[in-house]
Amino acid sequence: MISLKKLAADGLIKLTDARRKYTIDGVQRLEAIYRIPLKYLYYNNQNGRISTALQKYVSGHPEVVLNPALDDENPEYNDLFESFIFKSNEQRMKATQESISDRGQEEPGVVLDDGRVIDGNRRFTALRRIQKSKGIEQYFEAAILDFDITNSVDKKTIKQLELDLQMGKEDRQDYDPIDRIFDVYNTVYVEKIMTPQEYAKSIGKERARGINNDIKEAKLISSYLEFIGAPRDAYYIAKELRLDGPMNEVRRVLDKNKLLDDGEVKSAVFALLSMHYSGTDANEGGDITRLIRKELQSMVSKKDDWVCLTEDNVDTIYDAFQDTPVSDASQISQILNSSEGIKAASNDFMRSSRRLGKMNEYRGELQKVVETVSACVESLESIDTATLENLTVEQSKDVAADLEKIGMIVRKDYDVLSQTGNLL
Asked: Where does the source fall among the domains of life (predicted)?
């Protein structure tokens, strides 16, 4: 393993005149900036920004072993991570590359003594691409810190610094929402590197409430991934679906109604989400976050009725996903349209859900409907049939036409009542 500080002492890495202040473990430190040849550096495989891209690649290439290393030792590793960074935002990467090519690197990065890049992945990527295109050796200007990422104490310090540099500034470029949610989840809940309050402080927040909500949302997303047959940590599918918006609404409503641990309600919610993502309902192409916001509260308010009405269909939908696990977002639609039985269950689920939603929406008007129909009957019964015999020709025609309309309306409304199953 190399030591950048030793290479600097041997004259292979040059010290610049620049200095930069960093807050490390709550203390400001003035660090020297070095001019480091790219061949001595490698990407950080624990960077939260590219966790979903890495995860998707690993799931599709289980035979590949990704050992972090320098180009001389494992060029495929660095080329792969370069592609992750570049594809994450090609337009911005091209602009960064052009800027560095024209004016040089204006903002220093941060690297560990073994060459791991902690801050400055985009700048490092731009320099790698410039070096390849021009055939001229490039240098990454960065502070070199003596931390060991395999040490739990140092790992926490490194993570705090990374968050402070990437998310804790007013002009920060925030993580993708799904990347951010699962960076919180993995850092705080899974690996327990930091507490919610420590994570919040590292990104410039005073309170941990938002961090705790992110963890709740991440748990819901993981449960949804399990519902559709995917691994609970297949976050790249959540990213493809842009689940952050809809699931934030789900988390908010379930949390408010103390239903985050209600498995039956969550399964019904996950079936509803799947319908919207599958395009099998009438709202194909709609704003799923807005739809969920509109629908969920009314359905959850009658949760027992909703679960009872839809449980068989939810089981059918769940079984369909377990029989054909989802590995790509587009498969949700394919699975829910894969057989007549599954399509029927999906359609019946949506009809029952929407009917319940309408009942809740109109609950203040339901008794009015009963009273209006009753009043109509009383009005018709109050007509003295003897008077009908004395109507003029024109009056008789008008009344007959209206009675025919009434008959049509009565038959139509009666058919609707019959279809609900409430008359059995």
From this structure: Bacteria
The domains of the chain are located at: 4-169, 214-361, 371-420
DSSP, collapsed to helix, strand or coil, labels residue 54 as: helix
The CA distances from residue 239 to 4, 55, 176, 230, 279, in Å, are 36, 11, 9, 13, 18
Tell me which H or E stretch contains 36. Answer: strand 27-37
Q: Do residues 164 and 202 lie in contact, with contact meaning Cβ atoms separated by under 8 Å?
A: yes
pLDDT digits (tens, 9 = 90+) for 53-62: 888 888 888 8
Q: pLDDT tens digits, residue range 394-422?
A: 999 989 999 999 999 999 988 888 887 77
> What SS3 string covers 336-366?
HCCCHHHHHHHHHHHHHHHHHHHHHHCCCCH
Q: Fill in the amino acid letter for 317.
A: I
Q: What b/e readout covers 5-39, taking b as 16+ CB neighbours within 10 angstroms?
A: eebbeeeebeeeeeebebebeeeeeebebbbbebe
Distances from the Cα of 8 to the Cα of 37, 137, 298, 320, 385, angstroms? 11, 17, 65, 60, 110
Residues whose CB falls within 8 Å of the CB of residue 81, separated by 6 or more in sequence, listed in order: 43, 45, 50, 54
The whole model's pTM is what?
0.75
CB-CB contact of 305 with 209 (8 Å): no
Rg of the chain taking only CA atoms, in angstroms = 31
